[in-house]
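Quick one, probably user error.
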């Protein structure tokens, strides 16, 4: 992500943390407690942790420039039956794989790529994509998008705390890669 984008995220998170601290102060006041009790309002919904605050900020924020780090989220092969194509999901390292989905950990951009025999009409080839990008395969499973959200939040949290280069290094040390750059 651009330096300005990282600074923006850092500032927004600090603003939200300050709001949370002010809410904690207000919740100590008797009038506020009375209002919450009268309206049967659960005050815990106002006290989001840092992870929830960051998710809230990222929900509508678009990161434009990325480090080209992707998580392979699923793999499949296709079966054609009477003009319909059915995708069957398989383990990411299966020999049957014909196509894979990759999601950028910063921009959330989805890329679909295919083995060479299926990479026609402008389709991206898996081996080329994996050679030209950093592709992580955290759990070698299509379940739960192969840990995509976990990797994404880890990268962004570490980038906010240590910077992007250190965050990238930590991810590469922790998660197995697919392909090779």
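Nope, works fine. Designed sequence:
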């Amino acid at each position: 992500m651009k330096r300005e984008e990282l600074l923006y995220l850092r500032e927004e998170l600090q603003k939200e943390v300050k709001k949370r601290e002010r809410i904690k102060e207000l919740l100590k006041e008797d009038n506020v407690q009375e209002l919450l009790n009268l309206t049967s309002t659960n005050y815990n919904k106002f006290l989001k942790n840092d992870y929830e605050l960051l998710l809230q900020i990222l929900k509508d924020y678009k990161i434009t420039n990325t480090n080209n780090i992707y998580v392979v989220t699923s793999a499949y092969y296709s079966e054609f039956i009477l003009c319909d194509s059915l995708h069957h999901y398989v383990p990411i390292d299966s020999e049957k794989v014909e196509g894979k989905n990759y999601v950028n950990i910063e921009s959330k951009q989805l890329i679909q790529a295919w083995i060479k025999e299926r990479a026609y009409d402008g389709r991206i080839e898996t081996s080329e994509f994996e050679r030209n990008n950093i592709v992580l395969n955290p759990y070698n499973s299509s379940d739960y998008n192969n840990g995509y959200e976990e990797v994404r939040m880890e990268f962004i949290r570490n980038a906010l705390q240590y910077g992007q280069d250190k965050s990238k290094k930590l991810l590469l040390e922790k998660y197995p890669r697919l392909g090779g750059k």
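The beta strands are 69-81, 84-90, 99-104, 110-114, 124-125, 134-136, 177-178.
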